[in-house]
């Protein structure tokens, strides 16, 4: 992961603004998805905004020669589980997967859902996961207030209320510009430590 300390001028994730404007928005979490979503965006007849967080720029992975094209911009279950659904975006998907592996050794089965496309959102796949687990943590590196995690939490509260065993928990960045100071930056940004704390609250 690249070093922090980039300050508020370079550390903002403005995709909630794009979502509120009604634009299609996608965020990859792997090199494989980066190619697939890029091809999808190019071939789409509508404007598509593709975000690539700085923390993913050094990521490595297999990318096939053939064109990867997903017309529906569907989400993906990156890891199957039965106890808790973790919705993770972009560079936080690997964080969620590492966390899921740690809890698996403790006997807690966590399902990791990567939306890939934030708008349109693959609600059917997400709802199926929530109906199975009944517990949800959303980890997303945009602001808490009016951010992507807030929208997903609202949707699940409206459409999956009877499936939820506990309230949805959001792990997001604080509602403040990102400070230049690395210790302060770590304090306000979502990370594995904060995700572990949220999962422990549900179990």
- Overall mean pLDDT stands at 91
Strand fraction band? 15-25%
Class based on secondary structure composition and strand pairing: alpha/beta
Biggest sheet layout: 5 strands, mixed
| CATH fold type of the domain at 74-202 | Rossmann fold
Helix content: 25-40%
Q: How far do the termini sit from each other?
A: 30 Å
Please state the overall shape, judged from the principal axes of the Cα atoms.
globular
Rounded to an integer, what's the Rg over CA atoms? 16 Å
What's the count of strands? 8
Question: Which sequence of strands runs across the widest sheet?
Answer: 3-5-4-7-8
Number of helix segments? 8
Q: Write the CATH architecture name of the domain at 74-202.
A: 3-Layer(aba) Sandwich
Which CATH first-tier class of the domain at 74-202 would you pick? Answer: Alpha Beta
Encode the helix/strand succession as letters: HHEHEEEHEEHEHEHH
Spans where pLDDT lies below 50 across 5 or more residues: none
Question: What do you see in this structure?
Answer:
The protein is of the alpha/beta class and 203 residues long. It has a domain at 74-202: 3-Layer(aba) Sandwich (Rossmann fold). The protein has eight helices and eight strands, in the order H-H-E-H-E-E-E-H-E-E-H-E-H-E-H-H. The chain has helices spanning 8-11, 15-20, 31-43, 92-104, 123-133, 148-159, 182-188, 192-202, and strands at 24-26, 48-50, 76-79, 84-88, 110-114, 117-119, 136-143, 169-173. The model has no long low-confidence stretch (mean pLDDT 91).
